[in-house]
Give the backbone structure.
Amino acid sequence: MTTIDLGLPGLAGVPTADEPQKAKDYKSDQEVRWCPGCGDYVVLNAVQSFLPTLGLKRENIVFISGIGCSSRFPYYMNTYGMHSIHGRAPAIATGLATARPDLSVWVVTGDGDALSIGGNHLIHTLRRNVNLKILLFNNRIYGLTKGQYSPTSETGKVTKSTPMGSLDHPFNPISLALGAEASFVGRAIDSDRAGLTEVLRQAAEHRGSALVEIYQNCPIFNDGAFDVLKDAGEAEQRLIPLQHGKPIRFGANGEYGVVRAGFGSLDVAKVSEVGEDALVVHDAHAEDPSFAFALSRLSTQDLSHTVTGVFRSVTRPTYDDAARAQVDDAKASRAADLGSLLRGKDTWTVIA
Amino acid sequence: MSTGVDGGAAATGTPRSVTKLDRVVIRFAGDSGDGMQLTGDRFTSEAAAFGNDLSTMPNFPAEIRAPQGTIPGVSSFQVHFADYDILTPGDRPDVLVAMNPAALKANIADLPAGGTLIVNTDEFVKRNLTKVGYAASPLEDDSLAAYQVHQVAMATITQNALADTGLGKKDAERCKNMFALGLLSWMYHRPTEGTERFLREKFAKKPDIAEANVLAFRAGFYYGETTEAFAVTYEVAPAKLAPGTYRQITGNTALAYGIVAAAQQSKLPVLLGTYPITPASDILHELSKHKQFGITTFQAEDEIAGICAALGASYGGALGVTSTSGPGVALKSETIGLGVMTELPLIVIDVQRGGPSTGLPTKTEQADLLQAMYGRNGESPVPIVAPQSPADCFKAALEATQIALTYRTPVLLLSDGAVANGSEPWLVPDVDDLPDLTVEFATEPNSPDGTAFWPYLRDPETLARAWAVPGTAGLQHRIGGLEKADGTGNISYEPDNHDRMVRLRQAKIDGIPVPDLEVDDPTGKARVLVLGWGSSYGPIGAACRRVRKLGHSVAQAHLRNLNPFPANLGAVLRSYDKVVVPEMNLGQLALLLRGKYLVDVVSYTKVAGLPFKAEELQNVLTDIVKGVDAA
């Protein structure tokens, strides 16, 4: 097996392909069965187009999913894959990534799968910093079970299970991930292929857990949930794209920016009123997650200010690398002598 | 128990009589902070070093430190050692060591009349007596008249012995368990070097504590030797076991070693994904020490993540293992089902404890059999292997692994609290004799036209599916929890395919060859068969010996494969007038046997959190045998 240093720590140890690849190499022979107009198609195409650029051996890429519409994703990828059980994909992927340093392991999950039934596994995977890329398709609804509210649905949402409006306060997935001290957190919108591809690229290059929230439209049960982020004239007022090292500006002509407010929080201001020097320069590598957390709080339930791009990307030891290092250290320093282990220290002999 | 008195002198000290015994049961009982488990464990090691056969039963509360001096806080350790092969930790102690009034009150009912009682008198003060409901001290009235009572001020003597060490009074008093051990070591002529070495190693970083414990241990030994309080000492000769090298081992350690051996013999890395739970945690502790064998231990965020990580590792071509107890199995059941559907190897260790719910965490029970068998949605068969004694856990782990790897299936390994924490001598196997568990992974396309990989094409003999691991070029495929099309493994909702796949998965498990059931019937005339499974092997075996000693014939057989059953099981059941099935549940194996073989077995059950007593089973069996023979 050939292992070439790509200069991408996230993929260190994963063998590279001998031939250039195309998007169609990543399409499986299975018919894609999402509803017409589903945002999942766009994400699938983006991933299939993006993966060839990594130049990895296809057989060393694995997609693990849970349950939900988005979790059918692995069936459509001509890689290895497992469509597992509800909420557990990060845990299964943790075992796989720990056992196999030569694999690039991707988790595909949804808002219900990752944040409701699988919330525990998600936060613990992120705190451990297992070398996994987690794509969280957030459509703010339960699609596969036909339209109940999800843990990211807005309060008051009328659904099949909440005819008088949902009572739940929703999770902000980015805030949650940062609370778990995720080392990489990003967000993209299904309709913005270039933005999505850029976040995916940075996630792939990151060594450790990368959580990518993807706003994804469900045309059947929550159609138009993100239209305000897609409508010309409306979107520019709401979308705040991040670029590391650059002042955070947005608006059709960059007329708005992000400034510091009290107690470490951030706010939105008109550049003409506060001046360019007051704008916050985005630092994705800040050790303290508070800054990225403050960015995540600009986006409220009503999507009034939605930050996209990479909120945080910091380097810290990964669980799977450290676990393998312990095994390697033990192998180097102690003989694996089974007979000696079984005999132990205190034996006695019975003579015939 | 006595086999005659030898009037000779003890080896050292005041001349006194030495009684030769063939077996003795000693129970050390005290407060959970008194170090009774350590004391019992050390005495056991001394017995092992001396070459006795032995069997132990720890019994401790679930609370780490229950209120001091109370009945719920009592912790005990029973050790049975003998000059012949024994099967159980003993029904009742011959000697009870009671470190406080609570320990006395909780255990005295088990001591038969004439038994030896050694009491630490220092704790028999009004406050402690009142705490457990003694109006007057039992040492001062005639309530203990039936026993040979030895009153020893263990704490005081220990403190005096350590007076010159500079150790504080409290620290000195804490060494009194070693005093008790020293006294008992003297009484039973035990070798002492091992314990002194052990103490110096255990407290290597605190040499003053190590020396204090050694001093207390010696003080106990000399106390026996020099005072006139003990007129008799006892000898239990080494047992005549099969030739070979032995060591003492607990069930959890033997099980962990079985997994290490499985890693070596399969040449696969092991990933143990688990979550701490009593009484299974020691398997995690043990395996975490042996990373040099390619073993990764992952302490997950919960039971579900533990088994999921193990399954993920198996998917990647490692041997995935998870360890838990009944409540954990409940949480893991959906993932076991995923293992059944994806047909991946997985070892699920269930160290059973009292249930339902949290139940009795530190006590034993066999009530997870039906959970192991049926506790999942859909038709979800898994093989079940149950070790019958602590040392047998090693072999059972290897057998479970062999089934899991050969048939690509989760396997339930049903241990229990008695097996897990109990210990016995183990004839250490020769590594060269261990089975070869190597696996052949798929490396080439296998479809009929030779162009594709079909993950659900089966070996015609084993019905095991082809197993290709990620990283294998050209064999990319997807698996998952949805029903699979026979052969291709693509998603299929087709009615006939589902019916076929359900039957194929069942047939695969049903077809696993397991050894025929062996029946032990020395006279060949028995009309009654006793059939057990798991940890009741010892008490059932001991009971059968007693019944036979009374002149009756009784046959014994023990199941270690509970799914599939041995092929000859039905024929064996039908060849006896009566089949008795003792279980520490309400008749779960009996239900399976009646359902599968239409044999009306007699179910004898007890769910007390403790192993059966041999005496109890002896009485039950004797009555049944007499009834059948009279009919």
About this structure: Confidence is low (pLDDT under 50) at residues 1-12 of chain B. Chain B touches chain A through 72 residues (CB under 8 Å). The first strand of chain B starts at residue 2 and ends at 6.
